[in-house]
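Now read this:
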Amino acid sequence: MLAVIKNNKKIILFFIFCYIMIFCFNFFRPIDLDLMWNYGFSQNVSKGLIMYRDFNMVITPLYPAITGLLMHVLGNNMIIFYIINTFYAMLTLFIVYKLDKKIIFPFFIYFLFNTAPGYNTLSVFYVFLLIYLEKNNKSDYLIELVISLAFLTKSSIGVFLALPTLYYIKKPKKILKRIIPFIITNLLVVGYFHLNNALYDYINFAFLGLLDFSNGNGNFNFITIIVVLVSIYLIKEYIKTKDKELLYIIAFQIMAYPLFNISHTLLALIPVVYYLLKKHPKINTLIIKTAPIFILIPIISLIINYNLCSPTYDNNLFKYRYLQKEYRDDLNALESYFKGNYDNVYFFIMEAYLYKLSLNIPINEYDLTLKGNLGYNGEEKMIEKIKDLDDHSIIVTSLAFEESTTSMLKTQASKKIYDYITNNFSTIGQFHKFRVYIKQ
């Protein structure tokens, strides 16, 4: 064992360095809503809540299930959450290292800035793992198991990553080998949700809701053009080279759809960067020479910003974490108004997870009322649930919805639900950026 460590000392130190950099980069960054949703889903599982039945989400269940179980064992807090997600990111780096040692450092520089904790980052791992398995002629059963895991992490990614494997199958027996693991794993998941009376909810939120998600959240813009042009380039490269890994890289471009925002597009381009670094080795040398600029300066800037902005909020969730002044002010205002009594209070706000997790209020099915996250025809169904709330229920909305110029509120928040609340419930208060209604 000591001999192995001694012979691989440099690469072990490199991976330790990468782990620390990824952890620090994410830990010292400001909180965003995607982080809170991913953390919230995982924490819900760690506390014994049943996915889809007790809280809604549009993703398939593997990421919150694994992360939540690990949090239950290791510790139910945000630092453990970051430690676990940094490990997920390291899996991708390890596979890329196995694929091509020469590009690992330049690849890491790009990858570092796209490792936000969440299911999307875990999805990147599957692309490189499939490329590695195909290159090394690994078992068809194993390849299909990885595709199944990708499907259970993010269904669209799993479906599209399955296409290259089917394209290369010529014998009927191989088709069977690549279908059996998918069927078995998904039957196990279906059985679990059936036993927990959540099978319909699973199908509704994770699959039927995608129809509403794609219709309601499509955001075609200049980034769409970039993704299309990149995909055309990759297709031309495949026609010229017949390189099988390009099919997986092309399939992964679905990551950018339907939001076509910067974060999803940068994630979609991670395998593209890997391919370009392999194709143009001179770029590697240039990047290595300027590495301190790309890595150390952003990390140092984040740490300085963290210390100068007094970003901590005095509760267990955000202890030692960067929480923006905007959110701290929101939480202080909510605590001052409700004075710790949140019985029968419902938050129909995009930031509901952030507020409720911070204030130690249990999560429920009303806390993620975004288009596409409510199942098929979900906005209408949620309105029916609101109608059935007990009399004297308190509903909190955000004034930011009326004043918003941000694309997220315009495209993802449910105006239909917001309009129902404002038109049917009586206003009983307004403070900070919140309006409070009561059902009578």
